[in-house]
Structures are given as C-alpha cells and as structure tokens.
Amino acid sequence: MMQATQQAAGRASEQEMRQMYEEIGNAHLFPFWARSADVEHDEIRQLMQGQRAVPYLWRYREVLEPLLQRSARLISTADSDRRSLILTNPGLKPRRATVTTLYTAYRLNDPNEIMPPHRHTASAIRLGLTGAQNFTGVEGEDVVFGPGDMVLTPRDTWHNHGNVGSEPAINLSVLDYPLVETLNALSFDHDYSEGGAVMRKQSARFPADYSAITYGAGGLMPRFVDHRRGANGSSPMFIYRYEAVRELLEKHREWAENPYEGLRIEYVDPLRGGPVYKTMTFFMQMLRPGERTLPMKQTASLLVSPLEGAVRATLDGEAFETHQFDTLAVPGGTWAEYENTSATQPAIVFIASDEPALRAFGLLQRWGKTAGGDIMLLD
C-alpha cells in the first residue's frame, strides 16, 4: 500500500513539473536550475546549449563559382539590386551569419553592371577576386579595383557596387551585419538623391585614386585636407591596394615570424593607427613554403580566405584543405594552426576578424601551445 502511494505521488509530481515547465515556456521564461541529478552543473550546461558557430569550409571552385555564374544567368539587376551568396554557418542557421558577429558574401557582376546607391549601419569591405574593373563608389569617390584590392564602405556611407569592365568580375564582402543586428542597430536606406533628384549613381566629388593620393605615403599626413569621411572612428582611406601589401610582405619574407601567425600585416586607419573599423579588422598573411604555425586559440572569430596557394588548416584537430578564394570559418574558442602545403611557393591569405569588438568589450584573449604542447596565455 505504501509503495502504491509513493508511486502515485511520484506521478503527480511529474505531472506538476511538466505543467510548470509548459507554463514557464508559454510565458517566454527560462528555468535556470538543474533538471538532471546525473549532470554536474546541469543548469550551466542548459544555458550554454544555444546556437554556436562551427568550423566550416566553403569551396570556391566546386560550389561558389558555379552558383555565382548560374545566378548571373538567371537573375538580372532588373529582378533584384542584389545578387550575392551569403555564407551561412551550419551551427547558426537560420541566421545570416558566417561566424557569430560577421558574414561573408560573394558577388558576381556582369560587364557594365552598376547597382543603385544605398547605405546601412553595418560596415563592410569588398575584396576583389577576379576581374580588373570591379567598381565601388563611396561618398563621391569612384574606386575601380582588381584582385586582392580591399575597398571600405563604412557604416552610413552612401555607396554602390558594380563592374565597369568588359568581363565578369567577382568580389568577396565581409560585413559586421550579425553584430549590428544583435545590437538592434541595423538599418538600410535606398533613397539616394542629389539636389532633390533621385539618382541611380553617385556623382564623383573626388579625383580618381583620392585615397591613394591623400593617404598613400605612410607616415605623411596632409594638414590642408578635411579628413572627416565616412563614419566616426572608421578609416578615411577607402581603398587598400594588394600590390602594396604584397610588396611589404615580400620585403619581410626573411624576417623571423610570429610562430602563431606567420608573417601578418594589418590594414590600419592612417589617421589613428588602429583597425579600419571599431568592430572588425583585416589582415594579409604570408606563410612561406612549408611553414606551419603553432596552435593558437582566441576569443575572436576569423574568416580565412587564401588568395595565393593552398593552406591546410587544423581546427580542433580536424584538417581543412583550403584553396584559392575558399572561405573558412574559424569560430572563437577554436584551436587553430595553419600550414603552407607547398614546398616552393608562399601562401597569401586574407583574414577578417572581430578582434576590435572583443577588445572593446574587454573579452579578447589568446592562448598558444608551445612546440612541447604546453598552453600559455598570449594576451
């Protein structure tokens, strides 16, 4: 009799628990307590069971390039101003995010194809992959760029993209869209006008290569120029040429490298010396023939795209073979090491990172493993 009573009480308790959890869910609440006696700190485990970005590789030749060409054939600018493929991390679906704070998109522009001006609170860069005459107009500066060149479109700056050449051109974009969206600060504006007239293209207000003319001599700053361009705190230099960064890497080819990063150059704001944006930064890295970095883990997330050569990335023990124009997502908290698989040619890799945002929040940390496997705090 006693056993039957205890079983009935247990069933009643289970029913009450289910009813309570249902009411909690319907009230849009989360029960922050342990629900399993078999799991230590079960309440923390539940709290951390949300979506997390995972390491993932998008292949350019096999997947992205064919889909870009097909989309250009099937979708015209009359159908949509935008024709881009956003890389969505499998661990974050359905969010449009390649890592938690950033997304990468690829776009193919047909010859003489220009989209109308727009602006948004997300900051962005464009990196040329193919075609010598990719086009971006930014706040009245017309920028024509080719493979490896990086163009800034800071938040809230009017800009438009396209191709002024006779051959199709493909570029890669990186935006802090997911971060800005999370902070509930995302907005778009498409109503561009000049003198009250709606315009499909910005009028040029600066000479060609204004950024290079004004900011291209390192260590020298014209005092007679108004440097207030773009958003507050972003770089006024809107174009960074691949030729210059490639030459600088080559000049340092024989230097002793950082064992965790190889030879890495950061794109910086010529006025302030820091990252080009407050939310994200960009690097060009050289791995010399056969070079392999030591493992490093950091709270910042990376987007890694080889421009020259091939790189084997090992992320938490899993190997990813990356080739030209691929993109590899390296979420924060991932142990990562990189190896140039060529014995004769250097590998050149473009890297985007949310490091400035993590630093601003006081959350940026890095750990490295020594050659002997010991873990040390780098910063």
Automatic annotation (TrEMBL):
Q: Which UniProt keywords apply?
A: Dioxygenase, Oxidoreductase
The record's annotation in CDD domains points to: cupin_GDO-like_C, cupin_GDO-like_N
Q: Where is the signal peptide?
A: none
Q: What is this protein called?
A: Gentisate 1,2-dioxygenase
Keyword presence, Oxidoreductase: yes
| GO terms, molecular function | dioxygenase activity
Looking up InterPro entries in the UniProt record yields: Cupin_2, GDO-like, RmlC-like_jellyroll, RmlC_Cupin_sf
- Which source organism? Pandoraea pnomenusa
Q: Name one Pfam family in it.
A: Cupin_2
Q: Which residues form the Cupin type-2 domain?
A: 111-174
Q: Which domain of life is it from?
A: Bacteria
